[in-house]
Design a protein that fits this description.
Elements: H1 18-36, H2 39-46, H3 50-57, H4 60-72, H5 79-83, H6 88-103, H7 113-120, H8 126-152, H9 162-181, H10 186-198
C-alpha cells in the first residue's frame, strides 16, 4: 500500500505531493496572473479540493507567495548562481544570458512570473503586488552589494556606480521578461543581452 493511500498512518499524511502541487499552481499563476487564476483553476491543476488547498497552503495569496518562493529556488533559477560568479562582468553575463534562456524556455510559460504578476495585479491584490515589488527590490540590492564588493576588490573601476549598475541590469532583465512573454526567441534575447554587456564596465 502506498503512503498516499494509507489514511490511517501517523499524522495523516496528505494524499498529494506538496512540491508537485506548487509546481502546478505556479504554472496557473504564471499563465493567468494572480487575479486571473480562480480557486477552481488552481485546485483543478493541483489535483486537490479546496479544503485540502486551504489546509496545506492557506488562502490564495499565501499559495501564490509559496509558489513564488518555489519559483525563485528552482534548480533552473539563474539569479543565485549568477551572484556567485568570480567577476562583476561574469555576474552580469550569467544573469542576462540566464534570463534570455530561462524566460524563453518553451517547457514552461515564457517571461518572469514575478514581473508579469506585479504588472497585472489589480487594486484588490495590492498586497501581492507590494510583495513582488519588495522581492525584486531585494534582488536588486543583492546585485548592488555584489558590485560594491567588486569595486573593493578592484574588479570594477572606482568610478562605477553599483546602485545604477544593479538598476540597469534589473531593467534589462525585466525588458527581457516582457519580450519573452511576447514570443521573442532565446537568440533574439541573447542579442539584447550582448548589447547590454557591451556597455558594462570592467576593472
Amino acid at each position: 500500500m502506498s503512503a498516499a493511500s494509507c489514511s490511517a498512518a501517523v499524522g495523516r499524511p496528505r494524499a498529494f505531493d506538496k512540491q508537485t502541487a506548487l509546481e502546478k499552481a505556479l504554472e496557473v499563476f504564471w499563465i493567468k496572473g494572480f487575479d486571473g487564476a480562480s480557486l477552481s483553476d488552481l485546485t483543478s491543476a493541483m489535483g486537490i479540493n479546496k479544503p485540502s488547498m486551504y489546509s496545506a497552503f492557506g488562502n490564495k495569496e499565501q499559495l501564490f507567495l509559496q509558489a513564488i518562493e518555489f519559483y525563485e529556488n528552482r534548480p533552473c533559477s539563474f539569479f543565485k548562481p549568477a551572484l556567485e560568479q568570480p567577476t562583476a562582468y561574469k555576474v552580469a553575463e550569467a544573469m542576462l544570458l540566464g534570463a534570455a534562456k530561462n524566460m524563453s524556455d518553451s517547457t514552461h510559460p515564457q517571461g518572469c512570473v514575478m514581473v508579469q504578476g506585479a504588472l497585472a495585479c489589480s487594486e484588490a491584490a495590492a498586497g501581492v503586488k507590494e510583495e513582488l515589488i519588495k522581492r525584486r527590490q531585494q534582488s536588486q540590492e543583492k546585485v548592488q552589494a555584489r558590485f560594491e564588493l567588486a569595486i573593493e576588490q578592484g574588479d570594477l573601476p572606482k568610478s562605477a556606480d553599483p546602485a545604477a549598475l544593479a538598476r540597469y541590469l534589473n531593467t534589462i532583465i525585466q525588458g527581457i521578461s516582457i519580450q519573452a512573454s511576447s514570443g521573442a526567441t532565446e537568440a533574439q534575447l541573447n542579442e539584447v543581452a550582448q548589447l547590454a554587456l557591451a556597455s558594462f564596465p570592467r576593472g
